[in-house]
Amino acid sequence: MQITAAQVNELRTMTGSGLMDCKKALTESNGDIQAAFDYLRKKGAKIAELRAGRETTEGCIVAVTTADAKLGVIAYVSCETDFVSKNEEFRAFATSVANAALAAGASTKEEVLALTLDGTKIADKLQEKVSAIGELIQLSAYEKLTGETVVAYNHAGNKIGVLVAMNNPKSDVNVEAGKDVAMQVAAMNPLAVDASGVAQEVVDREVAIAKEKAVAAGKPANILDKIAEGAANTFLKENTLLTQPFVKDGSKNVTQFLAEAEKGLTVTAFKRIALGVK
After folding, report:
1. Crossing angle of the two packed helices 172-188 and 254-261, in degrees rounded to 10
2. In the Cβ-directed half-sphere of 159, how many Cα atoms lie within 13 Å?
3. Is 105 within 8 Å of 71 (Cβ atoms)?
4. CA–CA distance from 173 to each of 166, 170, 180, 260, 265 (Å)?
5. What band does 50 get if pLDDT is binned at 50, 70 and 90?
């Protein structure tokens, strides 16, 4: 049957697929828009299946919070190439996924995928993008964080997204301080807020490494434990957020910076997602 330009344009608007793909889908579906829409979705699933082994280390990471700053989420919509990740339509889609997850208060990736966006499940929207773009598109990572004040930070190019939760109620001062700390998390990638959040096996590994180095350097056996303890303390100081030197002013650590910014202010939790994370 005759496929009109209006039908092709309608299907392109619905799916974002290319002109020839839409025309073929309509031809295969005898001009039935809904059937053509389903055809393209199935095509997207087939492409995803064929490309399942591909690396999706590019993409767009979006961190957002509610207006009252009590809740924040980070969504990482991944793709295969930076060409796609820089596309404004793709970035807008990633933002819409994050906003939908925030509005629903979704706690897991599975909950996000089950949400609807413009009347279609996000899981199906991803398949549509696969069909339209020809790359494997996934929701690769997702995080949710709550607190008295949650601040979001999106690093340049949306390659890293960070959420920082603080103990004091929202104020202009602590939101600004939170942004600085979120930038610190993006740059320094701490293991935890403080030493209590670091797994004991991680500390034990550092102790073992320090002892091995000391033995190799010919240090006496009676001081090995002291050397190892010092190395572990240094490791924790450098790799936990509150004791790290503040990146904007190395004369103080993050704890001191927060205390100076607002009385009693501290970080209770943080989340960080970077490109390549699954």
Report:
1. 170
2. 9
3. yes
4. 12, 8, 11, 11, 10
5. very low
Q: Which residues contact 42 (CB under 8 A, 6 or more apart)?
A: none
Residue with tokens 């706690």: 107
Distance CA 190, CA 198 (A): 10
CB proximity list for 112: less than 8 A, separation 6 or greater: 75, 97, 100, 101, 104, 106, 122, 139, 142
Average pLDDT, the chain: 89
**pLDDT score for 146:** 98
Banded pLDDT at 75 (limits 50, 70, 90)? very high
Q: Are 44 and 156 in contact (CB under 8 A)?
A: no
Overall pTM > 0.85? no
Work out the pLDDT band at 228, boundaries 50, 70, 90: confident
Q: Residues 82, 58: contact at Cβ < 8 Å?
A: yes
- Domains of the chain, each with CATH number or no CATH: 5-50 (1.10.8.10), 58-194+242-274 (3.30.479.20), 199-239 (1.10.286)
Q: Are 266 and 219 in contact (CB under 8 A)?
A: no
